[in-house]
């Protein structure tokens, strides 16, 4: 109980910052920094004043928010699954590893945004472009990390499997995958942020819907509060995804932290 | 059960095994002692099919070892890396049992039984890294026991347990051997232990390792921690093995041929047995 | 011996990839209009080396990244030191950091386009914002790793807290900070290019936009190729420097963040 209270007490900085922001922007009449109260009002009006049947989402929100989210999640999850599978398959073979590593390192180093113009000429604008962009951005770090993780599995783990005749399938699912998982998660953690970047960017450049698109429209109309609502929404999205991911990681990798602590 | 002839192995230019000859009969418990770094683990890994020796022959149950023989279990020296940290103790013990068939329930009871044998029934739901080193070592032993192999290889299995537990585990090995007829090759750095547990004690020279002594232990059965260790034959055997390990000329008949030639160099480089010497680091390919 | 074999396999992999792409293009399985032949891209890349326009655009992007990184180091490392050595500062600022860090930097791009008159400044501002987080997190991570005994030893000899920071904390955190710089550098390149694609101005992103609006896919891919090579070089140089400078310390990479 006491710890919860003190934990909440340590959040004092958040309301302080908000109030300071409110007061100073009102006093300074800053054009590009509307007070939080204005942003909040606009946020409600634009996105969340819809009917209860639609979980209070407005048509605007349904039109821009949901497609963004859907593409983000589908693109990210699909790319991660494929990249983890491919990474582990390659990582288990020294030859394949050596052959493909330089290529994968190279593709990992290409800033993925640069390829959006090329993707656009292949897919046109819209969902296929967003999916391609997200998939490309996410795949390489996950692939690289999974490959690394599967490659450097402790030799004695594999010898133990051999000695006790553990089947190939079980070896893969119960030994290699868990042993590689700290590395895999390091790749996934980067990929969450990259997926967000690629989503926003591909919506800026080639889309007629989505939060990024809506944001750019607001910017060109000099509609500063609406632009800020998009910033807030994207911020919340980033925060929630990150928190969910960390929670999941903490759950899956409990053993890893425990084992490291006793080293 | 096990026939080793002229077994040699070199790591690159370094020769670890210099022609080992050893035969182990079915149901026998053979202890292997030798100075630290002499090649005991190397010998064990060749028997277990984890390492392809550069020369010589290993037959397990009459068949040459090419991969890990079917009915074999190993208790690894490096206990901390032989248990999977992402599985509970019970899962670690029961994982290999799938190969033995049976449903989940029978596997779980078998795992529990083995954990009780090593005195760790309470640790079943814990993770290996929540246990002390000695407890982890006992879990590794339980895993091998539950597997019920025909041939069990143990690499310094009691290296990091306290004296009391050590005695209990020694008696456990004796009892398991008696009840199941398992053949056991046990590597140890403890001379007392080798004499107490073994039907035979095989002494290796420092590397390149050869067999410099092969003593039959004739002590009254069942063995008893107090009485056996007071037995005059025990005291005599222990001294004998100690001399062999230190590379001194031995009065025993078995060591006479090879003991002398390795003696000189072994003395120069103190072959003090050092249980703390760890195995070489895992050979992971560099990034 | 094994290294040579490894390198050989890598070379074979790259050559094989290029050959396969070439063959797929020539047989029409991949429309060479959509993805130009590997040979076309490679010759295009060779030609870019003498293209003054391209080289100056690369220079612009790299200098924005460098300036942004330097500013970020100047901001984030002292802040991290303050947070890492004074627990009250850390506990106060933590919530703010946790809320700000996950905000995708590109969400701030339209705002930056308003705030900064020149696109260059806006770009650098965003680079600073993004690069700050991995630097800050790694500095904190490194300070947490400092051996308390070393600090107490120093205190017991009468050194003040400034000396403790200078003599113990900073050196032990240095490898982590270097790792932070390496992560930040790769993030900075991504952000720089993104800003250039959206907001224009100068830089590789602009060069690519122009090439693609002129439908020169080969030039786009050739420029992308060079950017990838630059990213690879920067990363491996920093990694090498890291392992050389801090050989005594097997630097564990801190949290990577974008
Ligand atoms: N993978 C390897 N590569 C190179 N040399 C090795 C390797 N494994 C072992 N050696 C060397 O071979 C010799 C024998 O090693 P081995 O592990 O068999 O000794 P050991 O008798 O088990 O020692 P200990 O009692 O310390 O466990 C040692 O000198 C060691 O340095
Ligand atoms: Mg050994």
The CATH architecture category of chain C equals Orthogonal Bundle
Alpha-carbon distance between the two ends of chain C: 38 Å
Spatial order of strands in the largest sheet of chain B:
6-7-8-3-9-10
Segments of chain B where pLDDT lies below 50 for 5+ residues? 250-287
The beta-strand count of chain C equals 0
Quick one: how many beta strands of chain B?
Answer: 10
Q: Compute the number of structural domains of chain B.
A: 2
CA-based gyration radius of chain B: 19 Å
Residue fraction in strands of chain C: under 5%
Query: What string, H for helix and E for strand, traces the elements of chain B in order?
Result: EEEHEEEHHHEHEHEEHHH
Describe the structure.
Chain A has a single domain, classed as Orthogonal Bundle (MetI-like fold). Chain A has helices at residues 2-9, 13-28, 36-47, 59-91, 94-109, 116-123, 127-151, 155-163, 168-205, 211-220, 224-252, 254-261. In chain A, 81% of the residues lie in helices and 0% in strands. With 263 residues, chain A is an all-alpha fold. Chain B folds into two domains: 1-71 and 149-257, 3-Layer(aba) Sandwich (Rossmann fold), CATH 3.40.50; 77-148, no CATH class. The relative contact order of chain B is 0.16. Helices cover 79% and strands 0% of the residues of chain C. Residues 251-258 of chain C have low confidence and may be disordered. Chains in contact: A-B, A-C. The interface between A and C is large, with 58 and 63 residues. Adenosine-5'-triphosphate (ATP) binds at residues 11, 14, 16, 34, 36-42, 77, 189, 207, 277, 279-280, 283 of chain B.
